[in-house]
Amino acid sequence: MQENETYFAEIARAKTYKALAECYYPPGESTLQQVMQLVESLKAVCPSAAEAADRMEAALQTHEGFEELAIDHARLFVGPFALLAPPYGSVYLEGERRLMGDSTLAVGECYREDGLEVAAGFNGTPDHIAVELEFMHFLVVKELDALAAGYLERAQNFRQKQRAFLERHLAAWVPDFSRSVEEQAQTQFYQELAATMRMFIESDLDQCRGEKPVLIGGSASA
């Protein structure tokens, strides 16, 4: 892969993580825009996942409205009754549908190492799917900033952090979580969102294991 292609692929990765995170918040007026961004960025980094994201957009544009999505979002991820697809890593990593376990504390420590904290108003734990996806977005943007400034070693450090976080946390529970969503969702939108994320995370982990960033001039806009 040429240097410019690598740099633009990293921007697409960052945008993909951000758009995926936004799709796990309650649906609203910006949801369609986020899905369209997701489709566009995935075309550059994971075409198979882009096809599933295309189906998300089609469902939203043709036969699934925001009210229907809001109901499904609540039953899957929020409650007030038993969650059908809990969006918390500890549930899948520690068994017995446990919340706030050791894995949750480990995720929080990853954030603190980079000077981050979960926002006080966020109604969830550090291992919520949206928060972990946003952290990956942060790490990719930091890698891009280092590349743009010519700091190859710093960029490599952030790529290593991405791989470690995927291996130890996000990629370790996304397959089970995605299956739960695909089985329990009543809307095509959330079924395809789960499939999109699963395919992208699997592909991105392979990329993080197999590639190192290269020194490239420019500026990030992810």
Structure in words:
The chain is mostly helical and 222 residues long. It contains nine helices and no strands. The model is unreliable at 214-221 (pLDDT under 50).
Highlighted features:
222 residues; mainly alpha
Share in helix: over 70%
Order of helices and strands: HHHHHHHHH
Q: How many extended strands?
A: 0
Supply the number of helical segments: 9
Shape designation: globular
Low-confidence region ranges: 214-221
Mean pLDDT score, rounded? 88
Summarize the model shown.
It is built from nine helices and no strands. The chain has 222 residues and is mainly alpha-helical.
Describe the protein's topology.
Blueprint: H1 3-23, H2 31-45, H3 47-62, H4 66-78, H5 89-93, H6 102-113, H7 129-149, H8 152-184, H9 188-210
Helix pairs in contact: 1-2, 1-7, 2-3, 3-9, 7-8, 8-9
